[in-house]
Specification:
- With 253 residues, the chain is an alpha+beta fold.
- The protein has three domains: 3-89, 434 Repressor (Amino-terminal Domain), CATH 1.10.260.40; 93-132; 134-252, Umud Fragment, subunit A (Ribbon).
- The chain has helices at residues 3-14, 18-25, 31-36, 44-54, 58-63, 79-89, 93-113, and strands spanning 123-124, 130-137, 141-142, 147-148, 154-160, 168-175, 188-192, 201-206, 209-215, 219-221, 230-231, 237-245, 251-252.
- It starts with a helix and ends with a strand.
Amino acid sequence: MSLGKRLRGARKHAGYTQKNLAQRIGAKHNSVSNWENGLNMPDPVTIEAICKVLGVTPNYLLMGDELGAADSIGEKLNFLEMELLRKYRSLDKHARGAINALLGYYYGLLAEEGSVPAAEFGGHDSRGFEVIQGRISLQSVAAGTGTHLDDDNFEPISLKKTNLTQEALFYVPVSGNSMEPKFHDGDILAVEDAPVQYGEIGVFTLDGNGYVKIRGKSELISLNEDYAPIPMNDDVICNGRVAGIVDPDWILD
């Protein structure tokens, strides 16, 4: 279970709405939604504030370990690790890429020595290219009139490492034809953790529905002229900018 899912469960158990919790900890109104959707992560100070309000421990929120008893790598984060993660998330994609490459190099050495399982951190396919792990939505975003996008329904996906896939936050299939001729029904989109500026294409959630659209000044716009613009309101959530289409050959069984 992810931090986002644990946060959502603890929030609902405590009887708070996303807006109520954001107000209690002094965060922006859509911050809690972004955390629960896995779009970004609260910093250590905010995590402590959340835990105080919801009555849970940082170890539970981060790793699901209520007692904080687990000691092995990956089962809990100390505050130094949390601070490193916070700094990493503040970097641009070029700096992240450099750090990812450095980590990949050293983890590759450890994997060759047998110190860590290669599959845990990625590895190499039998065809010789590097493999990375990502997550893909089990539900599509509409290039049409809108479909429900449930943020709980993601599953792991293995892909060939490329400039596109190594920077993606998540992947999502397209449903419908409103973004033709650029995107077609069934395309898999790579979505990066970046704000969507006016005129750019992004993935949005509005009134419980997921869309891939062009961001206008106050509306979501389709490329296909058969579809009318969708007015935006204060509840619209930007899930990330569309970086491109995933080549089917990059997706590994």
